[in-house]
Amino acid sequence: MSQASELRKFSGASQYVLDDELAEIINISMALEMPLLLKGEPGTGKTMLAHAIAEALNMRLIVLNVKSSMKLIDALYQYDTLTRLNDSRFGDSSRDVSNIEEYIRMGKIGQSFASDERVVLLIDEIDKADTDFQDDMLDILDQMQFDIIEVDKTITAKHRPIVIITSNAKKDLSDPFLGRCNFHHIAFPDADMMKNIITVHFPDIDKELLNSAVQVFYRLREIREIEKKPATRELINWIRALRADPDLRVKSLIKGNVPYLGVLFKKSPDYAVAQKVVNHFKI
Fold this sequence. Notes:
By secondary structure, the protein is α/β, with parallel strands linked by helices. The chain folds into two domains: 4-185, 3-Layer(aba) Sandwich (Rossmann fold); 191-278. The protein is 43% helix and 14% strand. It starts with 19 loop residues before the first helix and ends in a 5-residue tail after the last helix.
C-alpha cells in the first residue's frame, strides 16, 4: 500500500506561509505514512495546514471535527436503523429493506478509506475525545481497516490517506497515542513571520499600515488579563477592516486610537480590558 514514491513534496500553498522545520516534518510523515500530530494555541494555523496540503497536492480534504461526546464508531460508519424501520413500515422507498448495506453510511474516516483517490484526512481537535477514542482510532489508522458488524464486512482502505491530527493542548494525550504519531508544535508566529503572512493575504498593503497594525496587535496580545488572545485570523480580519475605513489615520494607531476592537476580541471581559488599556498605552 506504500505510495510515498508517488507523492510530491509539500512546500507551501497560496495562502499558507511555511517554515523549513514544518515542511520537513510534513514531508517525512507523508514518506513514512505516519499521522502528523500538530499542537499549538488556537489560531496558529493547524487546521489551515491540512487545507493547504490538500490544495498544494490537489487532493480532496475530509475533515473529522472531534466532539467530546463522539464515539469512534460514528467516525467509521453509521447504521441508519430509523430510516430502515420507516421503510419497512411504510414500504414507499426504492431501497431494499432486507439489504442492510443500503442503510450503512460512512463516517469521515470511512469516507477516507472508501475514496477512489488518495485524500487528506484532518482529525481536528483530538484532545476533545477520551483516551479510548484516541487509541482505538490509531489502531484503525495503523491497520487501515475496520469491520461493519451489522453486515459482517471488513472495509479496507483503497488508498492510505495523509492524516493530519490537531490538538489545542487542552488535555494530555496518552503515551501510546503520542508514540504512534510524528509531532510538531506550531508556535505563534513572531512579528516578522506575521508580516510575511499578512503580505500573502494583502500583497499591496501599505508598509506603514502593516508595521503599525502588527505592532499594535502584539502589544494587545501582551495584556495579561486577556483570556482569549487574538489570533492570526483576527488580525487578518482587523486589517481588512482598517483598509476598508476611508477615515483611518495610520499614525493614530500607535497613539492608542485603536478602532474595531470587536474584530480582535470576541469575549466581553476581554473587550472591556482591551478598551481600557488602549486608552492609556502608547507604542
